[in-house]
Amino acid sequence: MIANNIKKEVINNWSDNFVELSVYNQNKLYKVCGAFLLGIEILSLPRTQCYRPIFVCYPLWKVNIKECLIEPIFMQEIYNRRDFQFNIPYEKHLIFFQEAVECTKKQVPILGRNYITVGQLFEIFNKQFTQTLIKSSPVGQAKLFEAKLLAAFYVNDINNVEQVLNEINSVSISWSPNLFEWKFGKLDVWLHNLQGMISNREKFLQQIDANKLDKKIADLHSSELESVK
């Protein structure tokens, strides 16, 4: 069991090096970016006294903030200079910490930006599609496509909305029903619900605004999400 004072020191050290993020709790740093929460989570590794920094992205359009934080759209691991995952002992945190910070800033520069474009978000989402687990997971792909679609919809980028819809219709044909339906149900229903979301932009934005008013979310730093025409 890692003492709370050690965990507090770890999250404070990370916070000091990522001033664009806010401390959400003892192992999470987030910021609001348009329709998303972006940040770093300090993941304690099972059966060890070590942790690993993870880049995460959550939606802000679910029915309430609790639903938004049930699961991330994706989790991206940070790799060290030798291209291995970090396994940082809590008790030796300061020995490895600076390298972890440098690698995180290099691999996820978007965390330090005050203005983020839909194109920059798309680069991040598209990178996730190259991950082995996502390649074999219709559910993982569906979450990423939904995120791309609603990022474009949030900034009213109609061209990208239509492009992503075309991508979804093209790629979803190959999804195995058994691997998709356990999570999202019938594909045609899921597609219909997506179309329903983008038929009412005012309602979509109102739900995001309502979630941003949650006390803990309202206190977070934020970056603007923009569309570059």
Question: How are the secondary structure elements laid out?
Answer:
Blueprint: H1 4-17, E1 22-25, E2 28-33, E3 36-44, E4 50-59, H2 65-68, E5 74-77, E6 88-89, H3 93-107, E7 115-117, H4 118-128, H5 132-135, H6 138-154, H7 158-171, H8 177-184, H9 187-197, H10 201-212, H11 215-218, E8 222-226
Helix pairs in contact: 4-6, 6-7
Task: Report what the structure shows.
Strand 1 and strand 2 form a beta hairpin. Strands 1, 2, 3, 4, 5, 6, 7 and 8 form an eight-stranded mixed beta sheet that branches. The mean pLDDT is 96. Helix 4 (118-128) runs antiparallel to helix 6 and helix 6 (138-154) runs antiparallel to helix 7. The chain is globular, with a radius of gyration of 18 Å. It has helices at residues 4-17, 65-68, 93-107, 118-128, 132-135, 138-154, 158-171, 177-184, 187-197, 201-212, 215-218; strands at 22-25, 28-33, 36-44, 50-59, 74-77, 88-89, 115-117, 222-226. It is built from eleven helices and eight strands. Helix content is 50%, strand content 19%. The protein is of the alpha+beta class.
